[in-house]
Amino acid sequence: MSQTIANPPVVRLGTDYIGKPTSRVDGTAKVTGAAKYAAEYNVPNLLYGVVVCSHITKGRITKIHAADVLAVPGVVQVFSHENVPSLAWFDHNYKDDVAPGGSPFRPLHEPEIRFNMQPVALVVADTFELARYAASILEIEYEVEPHETDLEKKRDDGYEPGRGKSGWMPPPPPRGNPNQAYRKAPHQHEAEYIHLAQHHNPMEMFATTVEWLGDGQKLNIFDKTQGAYNVQQYITKIFGLSKEEARVITKYTGGGFGSGLRPQYQAFMAVLAALELKQSVRVSLTRQQMFSFGHRPHTLQYVKLAADDNGTLQALHHSALAETSQFEDFTENVVNWSGMLYQCENVKLKYQLAKADVFSPLDMRAPGAATGSYALEVAMDELAYKAGIDPLQFRLLNYADRDQNADKPFSSKKLRECYHQGAAKFGWDKRNPKPRSMRKNGKLVGYGMATGVWDATQKKAAAKACFTADGRLTVSSASNDIGTGTYTIMTQIAAQTLGLPLEAVTFVLGDTNLPEAPVQGGSWTAASVGSAVEAVCQDLGKSLLKLAQKMDDSPLKGVDFEDVQFVNGLIRRNDDIQQSVVIRDVLQANGEKELTAESGAAPDMMKQMGYSMHAHNAVFVEVQVDEELGTLHVTRVVNAVAAGRILNPKTARSQVLGSIVWGIGMALMEETIMDHGFGRFMNHNLAEYHIPVMADIHDLQVVFVEEEDEIVNPLGVKGIGEVGLLGVAAAISNAAFHATGKRVRDLPVLINKLM
Amino acid sequence: MNSFTYSPPTAVDAAVRERINRPDSAYIGGGTNLIDLMKENVAHPTHLIGLKKLPLAEIENLPDGGLRLGAMATNADTAWHPEVEKRYPLLNQAILAGATPQLRNMATNGGNLMQRTRCYYFYDLATPCNKREPGTGCSAIGGYNRIHAILGASEQCIATHPSDMCVALAALEAVVRVSSPQGERSISFANFHRLPGDRPELDNTLRPGELITALDLPKKGFAKNFTYLKLRDRSSYAFAVVSVAAALELDGDIITDARLALGGVAHKPWRKAEAEQLLIGKPATLVTFRQAAAELLAGAEGHAHNAFKIELAKRAIVRALKQATEMDYVLDTNAFQNSNP
Ligand SMILES: Cc1cc2nc3c(=O)[nH]c(=O)nc-3n(C[C@H](O)[C@H](O)[C@H](O)COP(=O)(O)OP(=O)(O)OC[C@H]3O[C@@H](n4cnc5c(N)ncnc54)[C@H](O)[C@@H]3O)c2cc1C
Ligand code: SF4
């Protein structure tokens, strides 16, 4: 009989946590307020900095009336380009891990204004209230130059970006003969799809508290970020600090959605002020200032699709033109997915940028895919109607069993099961295909569906494990928990790997004193940090086994690591589970206080090379429309997701629920309105930048389709933070069409577009 | 936000005297609007006169059969007051259609009347605004104006008054009671808010320093046939794109009295006697409703982003009148809870 940990006997039970719905281990800390966020570290002798942002979009500062502000008692300093000390000169010093190509924006570097709400000064005072007041009276004179912020005016200025941003892939070259195939096909559809800029708006505003630790210039930087290491390397490179001098700590993050992937300017400012003033400084942004940096870019997309009478896709063209700043080429994968989601021999994809006088866009939940899949999936729906085929059937007919972009098989792909299980749960068969044919309570009812695909990525990550004689295990890695449940799933993985009760395990994250982990993004944390945690616990387990074998009368003498299992607080023999050692006793018996291991995990390139690795989903939506008044409610959503192994169905479900809500916002509400005359976003607050409220949310159901994948990583997880968003906005748009017969091709679908 | 002092007087005359003596002072009710305006540096009083300790939070019956709503009663307490629920359900609906429970718990009746427009430009010091700084220009004209007025606007300002409660108060013909060192006076609701004209900085006809002490509701509450229909960009916690307060008295099929007020379309709740006259004495039919809607919207003018409101308002009026007529429909909670369905 041979049993291994990866394939345990049925008797393993008590400490098997992976795959079990587990409540957040940090839940109590969060709801009781014990969880501390960046702006809540009340270190002694704290000064407060408030950022002043530009009122103009383009031009230069001609005068800063700092003296008037400095005259206010309690104001300590006004930092601006006029008095910032000389800092690092080269662009690469300002590049962070996720910086796109180009020349990163340098806060307070020069008098030039490149975008509206550009941070131009930091006013530091003894109290927050005083700093805020002083910032409000700082007068700045500008020389104004004409600006252009409107992508619509840049339609002819598109260019293909060069390489730059990690993870970005230029679209693959065309395949087949898409133009000819399109012309010849009996069913054709072409249309433009548009959405404006959208802002992340996590609840927690960006903030940094820098604790000045004395003249060795050592700083503790409590920062709101999705990547402590990323902030550290950014800060150290700019300010010429060593890593020891700049410890970055981020224990809790009140939402990120991509906004914290890049270090934000308040971190730079707080460090600058602390170093210059040799005192602790906090800088928090306002909600308005949350609209002063990256956003999902305003994007114009054109899709051309054609099918034959059997419903086989004959041609697929998808092009996108997205805004970027004057100084960086922000790129995201918008169109590539279209070449991979469906089987099609004739494909042409194009991705272009146009420069506008805005801040560089920034990855926002499912960057690129949320944009691209919206256009593709509405276009697919449109073509399905033209070809007279049920939209679900149409997708099944064109199911891709192979990634044609990469010409590789998928490591696993259970999208077909997503379609079947989702449709069954939703009751898709009850759909009358005719638009405007279904009604309920005097309202038009529409059913719509759409699909999504997202990368399954693993990054290199490291972790440390420490087991102490009191039976407690602490595992750590400088990862992050932006609300995703990282604390919880890492605790589950560690507890199960070493067979300890959940309560005996603590996972520590968000600190550059811990082993390095990648920024939390791309839905790769579970795969990357999870693999590192499993690896380090296995290493620790090996050491524990060695010690256990040294114990008197140890029943484990002579057995290999593969021949034992860690379960229920015991190390026991696979061949006779009665033969065991209590893990807790191992250190004491050997007179040891603690046992540590440090290791990591990286993707197995050899194994993965031959495969395309992705998570998929299928979304089914019911809407009810009051046509006369143009109002639409999403009454029902079923989101079927195939994302490999689900580590924690509870937190994973939360991620997908959050994604659906996000998708409802994207479909019906979210847009940051730019007044192009001013070049300024105008609805820069949560009263006017609408995201869904509870009353907008009705019946949401999540289906996890079982999917085994041994290629993606040893844990078999694909990540769940983003895929659930895909398809939601398209499915809602499609349902709105089914209900009303009106096709809206620019998001969000507001009252006035349906009435 | 500038620094300020605070005092909570306990008597109305002391409060108004303090307000007059300190021209740079402001009354503060729940603070849900004023504090935001101060944070945005749109308002910068150096002294706040807290109204919480004034004896103005009562809701009491009036000898003439009406109901007095204290200026310092919260929006929540007002909406859920048994007399309001029973006799003025239109007001209950309108208040509950506004903001969120948290805001309504803080917001006062006086503050609700006095809340300022939500025009984006008004709140943003980076842009010119005649209401904030007379003479600087109106950025909304030619700018982004989805939430702006289609009726009664001027070349100086196209802002709307954002209140829901006030739309019902206009329909119910409430009377605003105010106090000043000169004594007390009453202002009819129709005359309380004003159109922007060439003085867009003035939202209403209060004289400097005057304090709202109460709102008097006349006896007639239209408790049988009424609807507050609010259309907005999400189901809660959003200001009206268009809202309608409709109140009818019916004798069989015939409308014997009618009130119709619009929110989200003008610098004040929008009423027009001619529109209501078109309803009175007529059968409660869609044809009648459409005529009234057309009359109420007569002269409406749209801008680049809000022209749709003209047609939307007409449809909303017809729907609201229909719901008011068929009260069983209204009482289906879904019909107004989810007024966007
Ligand atoms: C995010 C958000 C959403 C909202 N949504 C809605 C909505 O959907 N519908 C809606 O109707 N409202 C909405 N509101 C507005 C809310 O109803 C008002 O802010 C509230 O009614 C103001 O009352 P307050 O007591 O807090 O006023 P305060 O903020 O205290 O005062 C506002 C103004 O009134 C003056 N004032 C206060 N009391 C008196 C008095 N007795 N006499 C004279 N002057 C006085 C103050 O000096 C100040 O100028 C929303 C508000 C917010 C912040
Ligand atoms: S509409 Fe009125 S409030 Fe808005 S910008 Fe114009 S003047 Fe100011």
From TrEMBL, chain A:
What transmembrane ranges does the database entry give?
none
Its lineage opens with: Bacteria, Pseudomonadati, Bacteroidota, Cytophagia, Cytophagales
Instruction: Provide ranges: composition bias, Basic and acidic residues.
Output: 148-163
Matches recorded under InterPro entries? Ald_Oxase/Xan_DH_a/b, Ald_Oxase/Xan_DH_a/b_sf, Ald_Oxase/xanthine_DH-like, AldOxase/xan_DH_MoCoBD1, AldOxase/xan_DH_MoCoBD2, AldOxase/xan_DH_Mopterin-bd_sf
| UniProt region (Disordered), positions on chain | 148-182
Q: What is this protein called?
A: Xanthine dehydrogenase YagR molybdenum-binding subunit
Instruction: Extract the GO molecular function terms from the UniProt entry.
Output: iron ion binding; oxidoreductase activity
Per the database record, which ranges form the Aldehyde oxidase/xanthine dehydrogenase a/b hammerhead domain? 32-146
From TrEMBL, chain B:
Per UniProt, the keywords (alphabetical) are: FAD, Flavoprotein
**FAD-binding PCMH-type domain span:** 1-222
| One Pfam assignment | CO_deh_flav_C
GO terms (molecular function) for this protein are:
FAD binding; oxidoreductase activity
SUPFAM superfamilies, sorted: CO dehydrogenase flavoprotein C-terminal domain-like, FAD-binding/transporter-associated domain-like
Q: Which domain of life is it from?
A: Bacteria
Read off the InterPro entries from this record: CO_DH_flav_C, CO_DH_flav_C_dom_sf, Diverse_Substr_Oxidored, FAD-bd_PCMH, FAD-bd_PCMH-like_sf, FAD-bd_PCMH_sub1, FAD-bd_PCMH_sub2, Mopterin_DH_FAD-bd
User: What name does this protein carry?
Assistant: Xanthine dehydrogenase YagS FAD-binding subunit
